[in-house]
From TrEMBL:
It catalyses: carnosine(out) + n H(+)(out) = carnosine(in) + n H(+)(in); N-acetyl-D-muramoyl-L-alanyl-D-isoglutamine(out) + n H(+)(out) = N-acetyl-D-muramoyl-L-alanyl-D-isoglutamine(in) + n H(+)(in); glycylglycylglycine(out) + n H(+)(out) = glycylglycylglycine(in) + n H(+)(in); L-histidine(out) + n H(+)(out) = L-histidine(in) + n H(+)(in). It comes from Capra hircus. It is a multi-pass membrane protein. Residues 534-549 have a biased composition (Pro residues). One of its GO terms (molecular function) is symporter activity. This is Solute carrier family 15 member 3. It holds the Pfam family PTR2. Residues 530-549 are annotated as: Disordered. The keyword Protein transport applies.
Length: 549
């Protein structure tokens, strides 16, 4: 929970911080840095899992990652006050006077980003630490309840995911508000405090942990077996350069510590069945991460109700609609999904799952993942229906203007609360697809590859996020469905200016929803391969939950 609060404390307003008057990064430079940070925080997850499996063990990997987290967050916080910036970055270069550029063909020279090496180093170190904690803390927590059976593991993943969203909500409510309305130094100091508190709590709880030593990883063995099966010619060419001892048959080799060659082959066969299941979630992540992009874009063109009436303007995000003034932190738009999860996870754990257990109808992890994909499909269908309804108002020139910051958006007279069903559905889909995916990756992975496979699970979610962003970027090109060259400002949002009001978002939602049925069919085919775990016997008593460390 504390680690997630720290992560969202960095990611929630990173673009706003880099674009602030203190650093003066251009908008595209700040957005690029935020994408690098978010992408690296997912794509580096297998590295931390592999190091834990081979060298460190999960406990030491988490401790070292939290120390790195603490140092990197401290470095980022030091850039939020003048003395720290001058120490790590030097003085900000004075702005050079540029000649006027009245003609359409001339170009301005782009200036170098101030403090870029320090900030990129801090962000990449933060991404490495966050990805390592994410991939190891999940499996380390599951180790604590593994002896209590599959049902205890399932409950652990439910509440582990719930605690992550508690941290996200606290960060978005408190830290994001402080960063936008007070200053970033105080906001990033809270981030450092969260990481430090998490580190000391983890150390103090050490005597109660079940700590397992590193068992070695079979990643290299799996890669060799994959090369041998997929590319036999390349394998023979590679093995011809190996020493004679490496070419002996498995029975002729001297015994080595760790899994035997037969165990390697058995684990490889399991891995061949696991990875396609995890890959089928990539299109789901493409749909899921639209919540942070196209759903927000749609919400900006719906009528936003009064949140904080009669508040004086400050440095915060300010919304003016129908003559009133409101302060809305930009990061608060992500709270809808978080609140849905906080409500539905306890309902599922305390009401739905026990009822299904008593009726012997509790679905397996694969069935839950397929159900989550269905709800994700339904969410974008609902978003597309809302978009078509919004366009009906626009076609009749029924719009209201609302100002967010310096930009004016012309919205349809539909309340943003009409987006509640699609956020509710995407939250339900996350409960089934993401939580069940974590449970599946941990329970079905070979013991020596649990950390690495947890990392691969999070890495694939990052791949889905990047593919979803690429899809949006592709659709935003000229002649694309989401091409909106003038979507903000006084002229933006009016029909005829090539804006979102002329349509296209509903076709983007239809394209995203088309990704789901195909992957569900593939998912059903994978269930027929025999990977579906057999249901464990029902417990005589509901096992107590050991909360996340």
């Amino acid at each position: 929970m504390l680690e997630r609060a720290a992560f969202f404390g960095v990611a929630g307003n990173l673009v706003l911080y880099l674009n602030s008057a203190e650093l003066k990064w251009a908008g595209e430079q700040a957005s690029r840095a935020a994408l690098v940070f978010l992408g690296a925080s997912y794509l580096l997850a297998p590295v931390g899992g592999w190091l834990a499996d081979v060298y460190l063990g999960r406990y030491r990997a988490i401790v070292l990652s939290l120390l790195l987290y603490l140092a990197a967050s401290g470095l980022l916080a030091s850039t939020a006050f003048p003395d720290g910036r001058s120490s790590f970055c030097g003085e900000i270069p004075s702005a050079r006077l540029e000649p006027a550029c009245p003609s359409p063909g001339c170009q301005y020279t782009s200036r170098a980003t101030y403090c870029a090496p320090t900030l990129y180093a801090a962000l990449l170190l933060l991404a490495l630490a966050a990805s390592s904690v994410r991939s190891n803390l999940t499996s380390f927590g599951a180790d604590q309840v593994m002896d209590l059976g599959r049902h205890a593991s399932r409950r652990f993943f439910n509440w582990f995911y719930w605690s992550l969203n508690v941290g996200a909500m606290l960060s978005l409510l408190v830290v994001a508000f402080i960063q936008q309305n007070i200053n970033f130094l105080l906001g990033y100091s809270i981030v450092v405090g969260c990481v430090g508190l998490a580190f000391f709590i983890f150390l103090f709880a050490t005597p109660s942990f079940i700590i397992k030593p590193p068992t070695g990883s079979q990643v290299s063995s799996m890669l060799k077996l994959a090369l041998q099966n997929c590319c036999p010619r390349l394998w023979h060419r590679h093995s011809a350069r190996d020493p004679p001892s490496a070419q002996l048959l498995p029975d002729q080799r001297l015994p080595q510590p760790g899994p035997s060659p037969k165990e390697d082959i058995a684990n490889f066969q399991v891995l061949v069945k696991i990875l396609p299941v995890m890959v089928t979630l990539v299109p789901y992540w493409m749909v899921y991460f639209q919540m942070q992009s196209t759903y927000v874009l749609q919400g900006l063109h719906l009528q936003i109700p009064n949140i904080f009436p009669n508040c004086p303007t400050n440095r915060s995000e300010t919304l003016r609609a129908q003559g009133s003034i409101y302060k809305i932190p930009e990061a608060w738009l992500l709270l809808a999904n978080v609140i849905v999860l906080l409500i539905l996870v306890p309902v599922k754990d305390h009401l739905l799952d026990p009822l299904l257990l008593r009726c012997k109808l509790l679905p397996s992890a694969l069935q839950k993942m397929a159900l989550g994909m269905f709800f994700g499909f339904t969410s974008v269908i609902v978003a597309g229906i809302l978009e078509m309804k919004r366009l009906e108002y626009i076609s009749h020139n029924q719009t209201v203007s609302q100002q967010i910051g310096q930009d004016t958006y012309y919205a349809a007279p539909l309340s943003i609360w009409w987006q509640t069903p699609q956020y509710l559905l995407i939250g339900i889909s996350e409960i089934f697809a993401s939580i069940a995916g974590l449970e599946f990756a941990y329970s079905e992975a070979p013991r020596s590859m649990q950390g690495a496979l947890m990392g691969i699970f999070f890495c694939l979610s990052g791949v889905g996020s990047l593919l979803g962003s690429s899809l949006v970027a592709l659709l935003s090109l000229p002649r694309g469905w989401l091409y909106c060259p003038e979507d903000t400002g006084e002229s933006g949002g009016l029909p005829g200016n090539g804006t979102l009001l002329e349509g296209g978002l509903e076709r983007g939602c239809q394209l995203l929803s088309a990704l789901t049925p195909g992957r569900r069919k593939w998912h059903i085919r994978l269930r027929k391969t025999g990977l579906e775990p057999k249901p464990s016997p029902l417990p005589t008593a509901w096992p107590p939950l050991h909360g996340p460390p």
